[in-house]
Amino acid sequence: MNKGYWIVRVDVTDQEKFNAYASANVAALEKYGARFLVRAGAFENPEGTSRSRNTVVEFPSYQAALDCWRSNEYQAAVLHRRQAAILDLVIIEGYGEQQVA
């Protein structure tokens, strides 16, 4: 079973409301086994467009990543975020095949 990932690019417009979103999403993320791999660290953008923050969240499966996004718990948290940030989010299935050099 391949892991699932949220690839998120964010511009925070209201930090206080964004903090409320971050607090509200904890239960859903824990329920679906989420683990932050990248959380607003330093970055360079050599091509294309970017936002001010980037996040990568890993889930135990692609289905868990989809289920978390669709869950009532997470959608309740989204109500806070929509007032606090502009973002792009992609839910993607990880590559499960053996890597070839």
UniProtKB/TrEMBL annotation:
Residues 3-95 form the DUF1330 domain. SUPFAM superfamilies: Dimeric alpha+beta barrel. Transmembrane segments: none annotated. It comes from the Bacteria. This is DUF1330 domain-containing protein.
